[in-house]
Amino acid sequence: MKIALAGNPNSGKTTLYNAITGKNEFVGNWPGVTVEKKEADLKRKYNSEGADVRVVDLPGAYSISPFTSEEAITRDFVLGEKPDVIINIVDGANVSRSLFFTSQLLELGIPVVVALNKSDILAKRGDKLDFNSLGKELNCRIVPTTATSGTGLLELVKAAIEVGKEQKKQISPSFDGKDSNDSKLARQKYIDQIIEKYQVKSRDASKVNISDKIDRIVAHKWLGLPIFFLVMWAVYAISIGGIGGYFSGYFNETLFGEIIPTAANGFLESISVHPILQALIVDGMIAGVGAVIGFLPLIMVLFFCLSLLEDCGYMARVAVLMDRFFKKFGLSGKSIIPMIVGSGCAIPGVMATRTIEDINQRRMTVMLAPFIPCGAKLPIITLFVAVFFPNHLWVGPSVYILSIAMIVLGGMLLKKIFVWENTSQFIMELPEYKVPGIGHAAFQMLDKAKAFIYKATTIILVCNTFVWFAQAYSWSFQPVADQSMSILASIGTFIAPLLLPLGFVGWQLGAAALTGFIAKENVVATFAVLLAVASEEALHLPGGALSQFFTPVTAFAYLAFNLFTPPCFAAIGAMNSEMGSRKWLWKGLAFQFGVGYIVAMAVTQVGSLIVYGSPAVGFIPAIIIAAVTTVYLVLKIKKSNTQRANMEIAA
Amino acid sequence: MLSTIIVGAVLAVLLFIAFKRSVNDLKQGGCSGCSSCSSKDKCSGKVDRQ
Fold first, then answer.
1. Which domains does chain A have, with CATH numbers?
2. Which of A516, A544, A445, A29 has its CA nearest to residue A239?
3. A570, B25: Cβ pair inside 8 Å?
4. pLDDT tens sequence across A281-311
5. Is A83 helix (H, G, I), strand (E, B) or coil?
6. pLDDT, tens digit, for every residue of B7-44?
7. Dihedrals phi, psi of A54, to nearest 5 degrees
8. Across the interface, do B34 and A341 touch by the CB < 8 Å criterion?
9. How far apart are the C-alpha atoms of A352 and B37, rounded to whole Å?
10. Which residues of A touch B9 (CB under 8 A)?
11. Alpha carbon of B47: minimum distance to chain A alpha carbons (Å)
């Protein structure tokens, strides 16, 4: 038997799915978290008879007529694969809107059981719904549930299995104007009528409540952004300066800096392992993987805090706040959702662009969403902040502000370069504020920690081994006494001239940036391997081994370079799928590389002039590149303007 | 000498597993390129292989 979970976005489908299947799919307190269908067996607890029951979690939809591509997934599944029963999750906090979709599902002939979810919110508001009578009106069973606590789920699943076994055709409710040209209006009228009949609201919706009062402050057009910056500053202060920073310091300096390498060296020497193998293990694998794992406590605390913010409903307000700015620059307000999701990982961030209806805005968002620092970029940020800006906690959050600024400027530029028009409107339902669940946040944190460790012990480990080998051997596979004679040095030297206008001197910087394209954490791991061999100084300490390559200004520029240049291979793969065209993928990658390059160049050259009073290395090539880029952009914008004018005349 | 061979063999096995997983993740579109992935079916560590 196949049970499909369908309902409006943010009605709690995935929470319910996780509860009845035992899975732990990502849930979020905003609409549009689920963009793909997910399938799993029903948990034994809910399946006492041991029947073969599969549960399918579908992306949220407001209507059976799809407006976005993830709504189309829901429509196609329900109509094409015909599940045995549909559990329609109705948002108890917004019954009227949810029932529009319910009424359409009831017309498909597939048996429907309604889960009146978030019934706790309904009760808290003092609203009453006569769900028995409503069920009779709609010809289906209605079970009140609270997916977060598991209330009512046993009864719901039991009802769904019973209805599924009966295999009776669902009888649809009848209402006036159902088959008229204005059927949508007639349907909404019918919904409004039955809501009036069966729901008793004790709250006057026109009255200002606490949630509205909070929104007036945190989503205020002038106060909103400074509040967002303060919130992010606090998150970073707790993560980097607080408990996360303390444990990361211990991991980097003591655990992976002394205890593990000393123990490994002692053990390998005691069993007389060959020194080259010993160096590979200690200087290559332990140093590289350790440098990344060292940031684990800090990243766990950061994601714990972000999860709390998201769960309480604040991030949805940030989306609304950004809409004002984004709309002006040709982006959809919905673009903020991929960007917030992308703060964990660029891949689901890029995938979340499916919620954007307009193809041009979607492509634009695919190009811009990876600008937000993902979890993989955090080790680079925290390493550079720890080494070059140890007493400036504002540098961490400033990276986010720089990202937002580049998204806005990038959006403006893309709109000018390409002949695009803004066609869609952003409507986002703000979820109720709620006390964030500590358990939920802890779960998210552990989940991300597991993914982080998995990554460190797979692709990072493989890359580190290659980096160690490439820095220790020449092209003739002979060990080298000096790293500058190695394979890695020759690769880095090939790239190094390109980085000169950015003020980055040294093949090591080119090599680290190159490995960063495979996975961003590799930047840190590559420095760790190179410096573990070549330097006695610690990597993570202020004024440590990294200081030989950077000034604070060029260090910030290197951060910007790694932040804005194309993301890792896997994220590029996701970009390819969502762009829907190889041509647009290359355009997107060229745009990202151009932005990363120019921003890093500007930070280095302008920053050096302001801070040190003299330009950095590569000033003349930087001027030439800046001039060529400006001429190219002016010509390109002119061409686009002409095209736009011709289109207007033709229209 | 024997210890070098044993440690080398263990290391080779570990690296082979890590390499194979990385390649599989990339082939299946699993996220082996970014950590902290929140989309389970794309996150390499937890691809739901049912």
1. 2-200 (3.40.50.300), 226-265+275-419+442-650 (no CATH)
2. A445
3. yes
4. 998 899 888 888 888 888 888 888 888 888 8
5. coil
6. 999 999 999 999 988 888 777 655 543 434 444 555 55
7. -105, 140
8. no
9. 13
10. none
11. 11
Domain ranges of chain B: 2-46
CA distance B49 to chain A (A): 10
Point out the least confidently predicted range of A34-43, A329-338, A585-594, B22-31.
Answer: B22-31
Task: Report yes or no: A419 and A647 within 8 Å, Cβ to Cβ.
Answer: yes
CA distance A299 to A306: 10
Mutation to test the B interface, candidates A293, A345, A372, most B Cβ within 10 Å: A345
Q: Shortest CB distance from B8 goes to which of A277, A455, A465?
A: A277
Tell me the backbone φ, ψ of residue A209, rounded to 5 degrees: -105, -175
Cβ contacts of residue A288 below 8 Å, gap of 6+? A460, A461, A463, A464, A467, A468, A525, A526, A528, A529
Q: Is A274 on the interface with B (CB under 8 A)?
A: yes
CB–CB contact B34 A569 (8 Å) = no
**What are A644's two structure tokens?**
């736009």
Distance from CA of B17 to the nearest CA of A (A): 8
Q: What is the DSSP string of A212-243?
A: HHHHHHHT-TTTHHHHHHHHHHHHHIIIIISH
ipTM of the predicted assembly exceeds 0.85 = no
Q: Pick from A231, A221, A222, A420: which is nearest to A332 by CA?
A: A420
For residue A447, give the amino acid letter.
Answer: D
Q: What is the pLDDT of residue A22?
A: 85
pLDDT reported for residue B46: 45
Task: Check if the beta carbon of residue A309 is closer than 8 Å to that of residue A435.
Answer: no
Q: Alpha helix locations (H) across chain B?
A: 2-27
Contact yes or no for A483/A534 (Cβ under 8 A): yes
Matching residue, tokens 């903020």: A336
Residue A264: count other Cβ atoms within 10 Å of its Cβ: 15
**Amino acid at residue number A238:** I
**Residue A390: what pLDDT?**
84
A599 pLDDT exceeds 50? yes
Q: Is A457 close to B45, i.e. CB distance below 8 A? A: no
Q: What confidence tens digit (pLDDT) does each residue in A436-492 have? A: 888 888 887 887 788 788 888 888 899 989 999 998 999 998 988 888 899 999 999
Contacts of B34 in chain A (CB under 8 A): 345-347, 374-376, 455, 519-520, 567-568, 570-571
- Partner B contacted by A275 (CB < 8 A): no
Chain B closest CA to A187's CA: distance in Å?
35
Contacts of A282 by beta carbon, 8 Å cutoff, 6+ apart: A261, A264, A265, A268, A532
Asked if A604 and A503 touch (Cβ cutoff 8 Å), the reply is yes
The pLDDT of residue A177 is: 78
Segment A40-67 shows an average pLDDT of 85
Collapse the DSSP code of B11 into the 3-class scheme (helix H, G, I; strand E, B; otherwise coil) and give the result: helix
Q: Which of residues 372-411 of A touch B (CB under 8 A)?
A: 374-376, 378
Cβ atoms of A235 and A396 closer than 8 Å: no
Mean pLDDT of A520-529: 89
What contacts A342, CB < 8 A, 6 or more positions away?
A: A348, A349, A350, A352, A369, A370, A372, A374
Most A CBs within 10 A among B6, B10, B38, B49, hence the mutation to make, goes to B38
Pairing outcome for strands A128-129 and A38-41: unpaired
φ/ψ of A583, rounded to 5, equals -60, -45
Q: Give the residue carrying structure tokens 């980055």.
A: A504
Q: What is the pLDDT of residue B49?
A: 35
